[in-house]
Amino acid sequence: MRLDTLTSWDHRLFQKSQSHGYWRQCACLSRWISRTGDGPPYAVLGLILWFSNLPHLQGYVVDALMAFALELPCYLAIKNICRRPRPAAAIAGCQAYIHPSDRFSLPSGHTAAAFLMAVLAVGHLGIVGLLTLPWALMVGLSRVLLGVHFPGDILAGAALGGGIACFVLWF
């Protein structure tokens, strides 16, 4: 499949998400969901888990730190190599509900971090960790509904974060 075909598909899916009658209401909820994927909640969670003095939870924190140390440079490299414009810059009439932190959209950093944490949770907590996967998916979808990412950015972020988490768990 050609890249322009994928881009066209991505643009159409994005526009469909914004043309929904309840887009504004969904965007308002999405803002809250997206904030759960910001950096500070991860830091607070890490501190709580570390000071629990439970070895398996401390192991989760150590793995998360290693995974983020790998994920962040990969994320920045991909974003700066691809330089894919965000929807508001790529599609006439597109509206973002929030102001993004940078100009480029591929991959979604929020989604990468959420899937990194969720896959590590599955690796460390087993079946209980599966409960974090719907949250990670909602973080990714919230970024589309907020108008700052295309669906393909979410898939790339999920692959990046999930892949690095699997790599860390494997070692």
Task: Offer a few descriptive terms.
single chain, 171 residues, mainly alpha, 8 helices, 0% strand, globular
What's the domain count?
Answer: 1
Uncertain stretches of 5 or more adjacent residues = none
The N- to C-terminal Cα distance equals 34 Å
Bulk shape: globular
Radius of gyration: 16 Å
Derived structural class: mainly alpha
The profile of the biggest β sheet is: none
Number of helices: 8
Average per-residue pLDDT, rounded, comes to 90
User: What is the strand content?
Assistant: under 5%
The helix/strand order is HHHHHHHH
Q: Portion of residues in helices?
A: over 70%
What's the total count of β strands?
0
List the helices and strands and how they pair.
Elements: H1 3-19, H2 23-35, H3 39-50, H4 55-82, H5 87-90, H6 109-125, H7 132-145, H8 151-170
Helix pairs in contact: 2-7, 3-4, 4-6, 4-8, 6-7, 6-8, 7-8
Structural description of this entry:
36% of the residues are buried. The protein has 171 residues and is mainly alpha-helical. The chain has one domain. Helix 4 packs across helix 8 and helix 6 runs parallel beside helix 8. It is globular, with a radius of gyration of 16 Å.
Give the structure's gist in a few sentences.
By secondary structure, the chain is mainly α. It has one domain (34-170). Helices cover 73% and strands 0% of the residues.
